[in-house]
Design a protein that fits this description.
By secondary structure, the protein is α/β, with parallel strands linked by helices. It contains 15 helices and 13 strands.
Amino acid sequence: MKVFVSGGGTGGHFFPALALIECLLEEKIDTVFVGSERGIEKRLSDKLPVQSHFVQAYPFMGRGIKEKLISVFKNLKGALQVAKLLERGDKAIIFGGYASLPLGLACPLKGAPLYLHEQNSVPSKTNRLLWRFAKRVFITFEYTKRYFPKEKTVKTGLPVRKSLLEGLSLSKEEAIKSLGLEDRTTLLVVGGSQGASFLNQIAPEVFQKTGWQGIHITGERDYEKLEGFYKQKGLKVLVLSFSHDMHILYRASTVALSRAGASTITELSLFGVPSVFVPFPHAVGDHQYYNAKEIEDLGGGLVLRQEEVSVERLLEELVRILKDHELFSKNIKAFANTLACEEIKKYILYEEGK
């Protein structure tokens, strides 16, 4: 038996897939990755520790009629490519996004058991299409239960890479020291893997008004400009375009200002870092808002729509968290499941096929 795993197009789909692959390899399971020729997974293929196939896949949503026809053709062609790889007894799990569609379509063609994982509160179009063929749908947020049949749905949380989980043993003192920071209130600003221009615009004003120590992950585009700004103003803000050592940054942080992607929320919750969430307003189905709202309802963070944000309002909400930090931290910690990979793996490996 081989387990086929697909997730890509964006880092939000790729990295949870990679986390599960690492978990399957620990059991010495023969694992194969399937991705798109045009997605982020192709550029990050050196991170894949398994045999990989990159096939034709093309996004459908938000495209014109001509591009939608191209998408249908390419995705069907990709599905046929993948179908040739599947053998009797193989199983598959997909993590949504257009890059997962070829594997998802190939499974019913070959009679292979299919599992889905939906990261966000509002499911991707790919998962909404494919759940009918799936044995199980694994979810991260309670809100998602309204989209799939109860008997198929299992809340496991989001798979997280082992390197991040191992970082949970790091002490706050060690993290602060390794970053050259001081032992005081530290604000983490993070907009996802590519940064977020809106947060990059408003965060410098927050640091100027408060003098707080900070860690600001800017993305490539704004890195030099913001690094220069903080130096000029004499502010103690560590500026990074990107980091492969997020466990250190989370452990050193007191509170965060962030977008509300599923991976960011899960990672903040693992380390007990409460946040003021400013959901990306153009996220499909407004899923970032519903992601963040679930954390707010748990008492682990606060949500501001982007149009509601001002420096003064942000400061009010951040101070509100800091005044009751212990409770906010405890509540956001309750969201994460460190055993997400293990639980998903058990279903895939040991659930009897239909």
